[in-house]
Amino acid sequence: MAYRLLIGQRSYSSWSLRGYLCFALFDIPVTLEEAVIYSPDFAAQVRAFGGGSSVPAVATEDGTILRDSLSIAWHLSEAFPRHGLLPQDDAARAEAHHCGFGSIRQNRRGAYP
Known about the structure:
By secondary structure, this protein is of the alpha+beta class.
């Protein structure tokens, strides 16, 4: 699968980092594009990527645009079930739905390029 990921600055945007880590932690191939948040071109760059007004955003191989970190995580969990990105157990999966990616951010702090 060929994915494209649009994010803001990884050192500045924790929302972007969440989408990025879904790929990076599980070695899922992705083409990374970075938009500078609060720059005059930010909104136009996000719209040109596929609509919406925020990052992260992912373009899948079939052209589907995923516009938030939770939909990205859910999609990748289903596309790559052997990676175990989200728990298989229903209760644990429901809890992960509301976790805010805190454990991923804490465990990987400083480990991303």
